[in-house]
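Project standup — Tuesday

K.O.: blocked on the structure for the chain from last sprint. Re-posting the sequence here as requested.
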Amino acid sequence: MSIYLTILLNILFGLIAGIFGGLGMGGGTLLIPLLTIFLGLDQKLCQGINLLSFLVMAIFALIVHYKNGYIQTKGLIYIILSGVIFSSLGALLAGYLSSEVLKIAFGVFLCILSVIEIVKVVKK
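H.V.: unblocked you, prediction finished:
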């Protein structure tokens, strides 16, 4: 793959992940499969790229959502504390697992998420 195509795909994937991340729907849900499937990157590397890009996207999305009055701070400390604790534990676990196991686990997660969303739509 040429360097120009790789750069173009990185920009395109960043655009897609940024839009979905800004909407609050989790850009990494798309970014990780796009990077692994189309650019052939390692799963652990893609997860690291996703985490770094998420930080920047989350800051900008947070500012916009705050200005629009969509941020509620009640109970936020509990969410933040549990998020920090369990994301640390998850990162430690991911360090011990192989990329193949992470890839399978992520695929299973996406399948379960898809089924849940389909069931929600059908119930409406």
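K.O.: great, moving the ticket to review. The longest helix spans residues 43-67. DSSP finds five helices and no strands in the chain.
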